[in-house]
What we know:
The chain is an alpha/beta fold.
Amino acid sequence: xxxxxxxxDGDADRFGVAFPGQGNKRPAMVRALHTHRxxxxxxxxLRAHGEDPEALDLNDTTxxxxxxxxxxxxxxxxxxxxxPAVPLVVGHSLGELTAVACSGMIDVWxxxxxxxRRGEVSRDHGLPGAMLAVMGARGTAIEWLRRTxxxxxxxxxxxAGYNGVRQTVxxxxxxxxxxxxxxxxxxxxxxxxLPIGGSFHSPLMAGALPAWRxxxxxxxxxxxxxxxxxxxxxxxxxxxxEIRELLVRALLLPVRWTDAVRAVRDAGFHTxxxxxxxxxxxxxxxxxxxxxxxxxxxxxxxxxxPGEPAPRPAPDTALEALT
Length: 323
C-alpha cells in the first residue's frame, strides 16, 4: 500500500518510514494505545502492563520502550499490511529495532521480546543517570559546554543524539547533567532536562552490553524487504549480521539522526513518514528541510495535519526530544 499523498508517478516508491524512540508526548502515546489496542502486540503489551492506557507510567523505560515498539509496528501494518512493503526504513534509537522488524529482518514477536528486554537492561544499567536537550547550539558550542562540565565535575557527559541543527541531546551522570543546565544558562543556551531517567547512549550504559548482546544474538536475523539506514552510523546496510551488531552498539553510540536523514536523501528518497506514536520525528525533520516529512494517519497524532509543514517555531522543547 502507498500512502495517499505520495506522488503517483514513477518516483512513487522513493519514500520511507521512520520509527521514533522513547520520549514521545504522552497524549499521543495514550491515543495510539486506544487506536491500536486490538493489534496483537499492543494487546500483549496492555495485558502485561495494565489495561488502562491512561494509568501507565510512560516515563518508565520498561513501559515506554515496548509500548513504542508495539505502536510503531501497529501503525506500519495498518498503513501497509501485515508484511509492510516499504522501500526504506530508518529508526531513532529504540526505533531502529522497530525498523528492523517492520523490514522483515526479524519476526515482529522476536522484536517485541527484544524491546521488553531493552527497556529492562536500560533501566538496570542506565541508572542513576539523566539527559538534557540543548537547543540552538551545535558543534563547537556543544563541545565547549560538554568539556566545561567535565572539567568542573569530573563526571560523565556525552552527546547522546544529534537530533538536528537546532537540537542536541546530552547524557551522563545526574551531577554532570545538572551542571550542564547551569553552564547552558551561563552561555545563554536554552536547555532542559528530559523527563527520562537514564544515561542512554553514553559510556555509562557499557554494563548493559553483555546482556543486550546475548539477547540480540538469540534472535534469528535474515535479509529484509526494505532498505535500511542505521542512525548509529548514518549509513545504509544490507547484511543481517552487520545490522545485528549495530543494534548492540547503538545502546552506547550517539543517535546520528540528522546525518541519517541526509543519507536517506542522498540515496534518492524524497519523503519519510513518521510511524509514531505522535509526530516528533516529523516535526524534527520538517525543521531541517532536508526531506519532506509527514505522519502516517495511524500514528496517534495530536490532531494536526500530518502533511502540513511545521510553522517556524520558538526554540524546540524537551518534550520533542527523543532518545
